[in-house]
């Protein structure tokens, strides 16, 4: 079953991303404090949902995407898959 959650073309939403001019290392944190810093950037981002959709659809396993860390995205992916199965 294909994923159909992405709301923006990646080439377009990335132009509006709050992180577009930041060092990408921020989003691959090693400590809880660094995770909180990355999530704070995402919290104020106008394209957070598109980023999260992209990360889930393309199975980005590392880093903070759309305000969620790796474990949170795995849970979100499972919830979406379950919702899609129930809808089918």
Can you describe this structure?
The protein has about 90 residues and is an all-alpha fold. The chain has one domain (about 10-85). It contains four helices and no strands. The model is unreliable at about 1-5 (pLDDT under 50).
Give structural attributes.
88 residues; mainly alpha; 53% helix
Amount of helix: 40-55%
Gyration radius, rounded = 13 Å
Secondary-structure content class: mainly alpha
Secondary-structure element string:
HHHH
Q: What's the tally of helices? A: 4
- Whole-number total of structural domains: 1
What is the straight-line distance between the termini?
10 Å
Low-confidence stretches: 1-5
Percent in strands? under 5%
Total DSSP E strands: 0
Molecular shape: globular
- Summed over residues and divided by their number, the pLDDT gives a mean of 89
Gist?
The chain contains four helices and no strands. It is mostly helical and 88 residues long.
Strand-helix topology:
Blueprint: H1 10-16, H2 32-43, H3 48-57, H4 70-87
């Amino acid at each position: 079953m294909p994923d159909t959650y992405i709301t923006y073309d990646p080439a377009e939403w990335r132009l509006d991303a709050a992180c577009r001019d930041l060092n990408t290392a921020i989003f691959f944190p090693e400590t809880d404090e660094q995770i909180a810093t990355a999530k704070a950037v995402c919290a104020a981002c106008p394209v957070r949902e598109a980023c999260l959709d992209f990360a889930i659809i393309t199975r980005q396993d590392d880093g903070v995407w759309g305000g969620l860390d790796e474990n949170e995205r795995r849970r979100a992916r499972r919830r979406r898959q379950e919702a899609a199965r129930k809808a089918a």
